[in-house]
Each structure stands twice: as structure tokens, then as C-alpha cells.
Design a protein that fits this description.
The protein has about 160 residues and is mainly alpha-helical.
């Protein structure tokens, strides 16, 4: 939840003892599987929401801005913010006045951690081998309790 620049998903406290993290899944089980749009899109009386493929929605958004000069800010919010999102907004008011965070970076959030994530496979493969080697060096020549130490037999004169 900390990584989401839009502060979603969020907790649902329908049960005080069992809060659940939820986010919209676009009515996947009840509508998308059947080829229908999400209920919020279909039922919106003002038809302010559209649902579809990203490239198609971007085309629609830019056409609306072009066909209605002065009606919308010349920017599709979500097109480039944090590398591009799955939600796009048009607004007649500046986005900061509409409550949008206009200080989001343009580069994807994954860029902040990809160098670190590249190290993870090395850590998971090299470190266990390295520590196994250290262990073997540290215990070389010592008895490991496997019955291969015959010094006890020699002391008793067997």
C-alpha cells in the first residue's frame, strides 16, 4: 500500500477484528468475464467513465481534448504519471485544484527499486554457497558427530 502513489488499495473495516485490504477489480467475476463493462461505467448517468484498452482510451481522451478546446485542460492525467497508469482523467480545472497529486514522477515507480531487485537473485544464489564454504572451512578437521572420528576408539585401546 505504501508503494501506491494514489493511496489505493485501502483498508475495509467492515469487521473490527478482521480488517481487509480491498481495491476495485472492475466487477471481474460478475461482468468482465461475460464481456460487459464494469457496473459503475454502465450505470453512470452522466457517462463520465469509459472502459477499454489503454491505447483506445488514450485516443478517445486526446480526441475529446482536441474537439473541445477550452473545455478540458490539455493534459490526460495518468498518461505519463508514474510511467502511465490504468486510469485516465480529463478535467476542466487544473488537476491540482481538482485534488490530484501533480508532483508524481513521470518515470515508473519500479525504476526506484529495479537496481536493488537485480541484486536479489545474486544474494539468493551466491550467499548460501559462500556461507556454506565458510562453514566448511571453519569446521574442517573437526568431528561432526557422524561416527567418522576414531580417536575415541584409539584411546580405549581397541
Amino acid at each position: 500500500m505504501i508503494a501506491c502513489p494514489f493511496h489505493i488499495p485501502a483498508y475495509s473495516y467492515s469487521s473490527a477484528l478482521n480488517p481487509v485490504i480491498k481495491k476495485c477489480i472492475f466487477c471481474y467475476d460478475t461482468r468482465l468475464k461475460e464481456g460487459k463493462p464494469p457496473a459503475c461505467v454502465e450505470s453512470c448517468p452522466q457517462q463520465v467513465m469509459t472502459f477499454g484498452k489503454r491505447k483506445d482510451l488514450m485516443k478517445i481522451a486526446h480526441e475529446r481534448i482536441k474537439k473541445n478546446p477550452g473545455q478540458y485542460v490539455d493534459h490526460v492525467y495518468g498518461e505519463k504519471e508514474v510511467g502511465g497508469t490504468g486510469w485516465f482523467y480529463l478535467s476542466s480545472a487544473p488537476f491540482e485544484e481538482a485534488g490530484f497529486d501533480v508532483n508524481l514522477p513521470k518515470k515508473p515507480i519500479i525504476d526506484n527499486v529495479k537496481d536493488f531487485l537485480a541484486i536479489v537473485p545474486m544474494v539468493l544464489t551466491i550467499w548460501p554457497a559462500l556461507f556454506t564454504g565458510f562453514h566448511l572451512l571453519a569446521t574442517k578437521g573437526k568431528s561432526h558427530g557422524h561416527g567418522d572420528d576414531h580417536s575415541h576408539d584409539e584411546q580405549e585401546g581397541h
